[in-house]
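re: ur question from yesterday

yeah so i grabbed the chain u mentioned. its 99 aa long if i counted rite. heres the sequnce exactly as i have it in my notes:
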Amino acid sequence: MKYEEIKSENSITLKVEGRIDALASPELQNEILLCLQKMPVLHVDFTNVEYISSAGLRVLLLGHKTATSKGGKMTVHNINSIVSDILKTTGFDKFINIV
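ran it thru and got these structure tokens back, copy pasting raw so excuse formatting
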């Protein structure tokens, strides 16, 4: 998994690439939490994310809860049909902000 952090005036966009599975999830979790320490608004770009496992879903849940607790917001952008199906099947589309 690769990621790139792009800062703007009042938010951070985190571009993620690859598979978000049990091996990649700890690294993504650390990066999301670091971004949310810098700014309360985080946009996670999934344009190049092929797949997300249950470990990756836990990372999204933690990011959502952390952003909300700080009065901020985390959104997920540009998800493909595979990731979209996983989010819908698990009910994550009900509380994760998908743009």
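noticed a couple things. Residues 54-69 form the longest helix (16 residues). also The chain has three helices and five strands.
anyway ttyl
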